[in-house]
Specification:
This protein has 407 residues and is of the alpha/beta class. The protein is 34% helix and 27% strand. It has helices at 16-31, 46-58, 65-89, 121-128, 155-165, 199-207, 215-224, 277-287, 316-330, 358-368, 392-402, and strands spanning 3-8, 35-40, 94-97, 104-106, 115-118, 132-136, 139-141, 147-149, 170-175, 196-198, 228-232, 240-243, 256-272, 293-297, 304-312, 335-348, 375-379, 382-388. The structure holds adenosine-5'-diphosphate, aspartic acid (ASP) and magnesium ion.
Length: 407
């Protein structure tokens, strides 16, 4: 008898019919002789609608974070009850648990909390009593009982963390595509499903826009050695196995292409080229809990320089606000300017460690397609450029072709 954690995302539980489909799949897994914990997301669109409702009642003010989490957690709470009810109606023993009820403890950073501990005794007891456990994704509680949520896409993290905590034999992430593809199949229809991918590649893809997995969940899987499979809830095709890298994985130079839209470039100009300047700037940005990427500093010729970074376009106002006291401190002539309409394009592959010339090939292919590169950053297994947002789909197709990813 195996212990299996399954996670069903928003589209997989998006309608009552889809919830019944999920309930049937869970039941089949149980009937095949397994114990099952099924993590479910909010029905598709629900989390976004809850955020809109919060905006409507708060106007110009930011919703209080504590209440935001109380609100957001209701999306998943609806789905657990409906899924458990559906199984009960099929004559099966199933019990729903919120994150808090399942013993998922987090820090107190509302709307992007980190899991600090899981006490799975209650889950084990329910399983030992013959129940299927239906667990709410995306949520937990602080040690003093406040409801928290784990950041967008956080049900992936719930599934992987629970799989680690109960030492599950299998962790399956069910979604609306057959697995992880060489690029988002909605953008590049020729994209191919990847059979096997290393944690590092999946992590780089997830953190550069491949939203099929939440990047923090992949980080967690890597840290605790949780092998998992991404597969479809709508068929029985084998999916993509995400695991520790193997020797044979190195032979593929580029595993996939990621894209991320809605970025903005923030440039701070005229700053003195002195030790401590960057520290002040990014200290202020990080204190505002903003995720910055692709930091570029120009060479200084006259003792002053420009520093640019990218953020999500919705975070520009927050970044400008966080920077304003620092700018005053940095002296006269320092200015800040933001430009949106930018997107990021990344190529990812562990084979890059042992192959040179990938950057040159990438830049050449983009130039042949008449696509201008604005910023560049690299890591050991990833190269990212920014391009105009209206060219990103074309740029992704060009990359996919240039590296022969369609096979
Ligand atoms: P869920 O609701 O199941 O969590 P998500 O919407 O978070 O699903 O993720 C699935 C979506 O991710 C797919 O529908 C697909 O459009 C998108 N996606 C982006 N890049 C990729 C990729 N490289 N491979 C597969 N899916 C991708
Ligand atoms: N419902 C949450 C979201 O939309 C969590 C998830 O689906 O994983 O981000
Ligand atoms: Mg998701």
């Amino acid at each position: 008898m195996s212990l299996i954690v399954q996670k069903y995302g928003g589209t997989s539980v998006g309608t009552p019919e889809r919830i019944l489909n999920v309930a049937k799949r869970i039941l089949e897994t149980k009937k095949a002789g397994n114990r099952v914990v099924a993590v479910v997301s909010a029905m598709s669109g629900v989390t976004n609608r809850l955020i809109e409702l919060a905006d409507k009642v708060t106007g110009e003010a930011e919703p209080t974070e504590r209440e935001m989490d109380v609100l957001l957690a209701t999306g998943e709470q609806t789905t657990i009850a409906l899924t458990a009810m559906a199984l009960n109606a099929m004559g099966e023993k199933a019990v729903s648990l919120t994150g808090a009820q399942a013993g998922i403890e987090t820090d107190g950073v509302h709307t992007k909390a980190r899991i600090s501990n899981i006490s799975p005794e209650g889950v084990h007891e329910l399983l030992n009593d013959g129940n299927i456990v239906i667990l709410a994704g995306f949520q937990g509680k602080t040690p003093d009982g406040k409801i928290t949520t784990l950041g967008r896409g956080g049900s992936d993290l719930t599934a992987i963390a629970m799989a680690a905590a109960i030492d599950a034999d299998l962790c399956q992430i069910y979604t609306d595509v057959d697995g992880v593809y060489t690029c988002d199949p909605r953008v590049v229809p020729e994209a191919r499903k990847i059979d096997e991918i290393s944690y590092d590649e999946m992590l780089e893809m997830a953190s550069s826009g491949t939203k099929v997995m939440q990047s923090r969940s992949v980080e967690f899987a890597k840290k605790f050695g949780v092998t998992f499979e991404v597969r479809s809830s709508l068929n029985n095709n084998p999916g993509t196995i995400v695991r520790e890298e193997t020797m044979s994985m190195e032979s593929v130079v580029i595993r996939g292409v990621s894209l991320e839209r809605a970025q903005a470039k923030v440039t701070i100009s005229g700053v003195n080229d002195l030790p401590g300047t960057a520290g002040k700037i990014f200290g202020a940005v990080s204190d505002a809990n903003l995720i910055v990427d692709m930091i570029v500093q120009n060479v200084s010729q006259t003792g002053t320089t420009d520093i640019s970074f990218t953020v999500h376009k919705d975070d520009v106002a927050k970044a400008e606000k966080a920077l304003s006291p620092v700018l005053a401190e940095l002296g006269d002539g320092v200015g800040v300017e933001a430009q949106d309409g930018i997107a990021k394009l990344s190529v990812v592959g562990i084979g890059m460690r042992s192959h040179s010339g990938v950057a040159a090939e990438m830049f050449q292919a983009l130039s042949e397609a008449g696509i201008n590169i604005k910023m560049i950053s690299t890591s050991e297994i990833k190269i990212t450029v920014t391009v105009a947002e209206d060219q990103i789909d074309e740029a992704a197709k060009v990359m996919h072709d240039a590296f022969g990813l369609a096979g």
